[in-house]
Amino acid sequence: MTQQVDISIPITQASSNPKPFTLYNITLRLPLRSFTLQKRYSDFTALHSALTSQAGAAPPTSLPSKSWFTRTTSSPELTEERRKGLETYLIAINDSDDERWRTTSAWRTFLNLPSNTISRSNTSTLRSALNGPGGSQPITDPVVWLDHHRDLKAQLHDARLHLTRRDQASTVQAQHEASTQAKKFLVRAGTMIQTLDTGLQNLSSASSWGTPRLGEGELRRRRDLLSSVKREKEGLENLLSAMAAKSAVDKTVADKSDSTALFGPAKPASGRVLGKESDKTRALGNQGVLQLQKQMMQEQDEDVMVLARAVARQKELGVQIQEELVVQNEMLGMLDEDVTRVQGKMDVARKRIGKIS
């Protein structure tokens, strides 16, 4: 498969965390987008070893040799020479007629290439991974993991679409069909989440699978992506449950209304009347009364929480007022002492003036 990508290393960048080293800015131009990666020389040596191992042969061009006596951070000439050599190395692999180095996971992971660079030999791996735990192979390729995540997002999007259709449906049959489809996509999403979780564990120790291990930053980013889709799936499941509960209440009310229209108002059952029936509960069945009671209890709990916050705030104000009163009492005590001391001095002065006069 010919890769539609242009590779160059136009500039370098110096970094000093924790020790001085040189970063090589790799610019990739794809048909739909362009982006830049930053790699160290040690990343290139790891790539070379992985390509040789996975492809069964060394790449067509060798890496520029390592200097044991001069560092690129202190020699602009060596930095420029190595930049040109690394650029030639990548271009030689990218333009080679032999595509076995470009079809390895090491090459795609190093350049963060999208899924359209996957070769035919890797198509079965992607398909088995997308089929979930029943697939023949686990996810050990970082690019396949991203493709699996993309497909999972599509499943959640379809589930949300069917939930919207269910909310807008006007017949019970249409609501049931939309609910069934949404549940199917959510079940499939749950299976895919388990596969992604297992695959992420494999990628965190990918050296055992023959592929370069992902960095901690990339692993953290993918864990965040997985947590996000888990929360999205749970939200859709809660929405589906709420819709089902609402439909049950609406059906109970509709059945009661139809019964009243046919047979006239019925007397409330003696087993449910603990006191006088209200207008809200008279038209509801047992399930509807239970739902209404839960809603009222929830509203009461929310009112109690608001009241509790107001009482806590009043308590804080009372404590602050008490602290302020203590400070004011101390200041008044100090003022009283000063007045007493000044009064004593004035008495002594009056006595001296009396003796002089």
Question: What's a quick, concise take on this entry?
Answer:
It contains nine helices and three strands. The chain has helices spanning 41-55, 76-95, 105-111, 123-130, 142-168, 172-204, 216-263, 279-282, 286-356, and strands at 6-16, 20-29, 34-39. The chain is flat, with a radius of gyration of 37 Å.
How many helices does DSSP assign?
Answer: 9
Number of strands: 3
Assign the structural class, choosing from mainly alpha, mainly beta, alpha/beta, alpha+beta, or little secondary structure: mainly alpha
The biggest sheet amounts to: 3 strands, antiparallel
Query: Whole-Å distance between the termini?
Result: 121 Å
**Quaternary status of these chains?**
single chain
- Alpha-carbon Rg, integer: 37 Å
From the structure above, extract its key features.
single chain, 357 residues, 9 helices, T_SNARE_dom
Ordered list of secondary-structure elements with their pairings:
Elements: E1 6-16, E2 20-29, E3 34-39, H1 41-55, H2 76-95, H3 105-111, H4 123-130, H5 142-168, H6 172-204, H7 216-263, H8 279-282, H9 286-356
Antiparallel strand pairs: 1-2, 2-3
Helix pairs in contact: 1-3, 4-5, 5-6, 5-7, 6-7
Provide structural commentary:
With 357 residues, the protein is mainly alpha-helical. The protein has helices at residues 41-55, 76-95, 105-111, 123-130, 142-168, 172-204, 216-263, 279-282, 286-356, and strands at residues 6-16, 20-29, 34-39. Residues 117-136 have low confidence and may be disordered. InterPro entries: PX_dom (IPR001683), PX_dom_sf (IPR036871), T_SNARE_dom (IPR000727). Residues 2-117 form the PX domain. It holds the Pfam family PX.
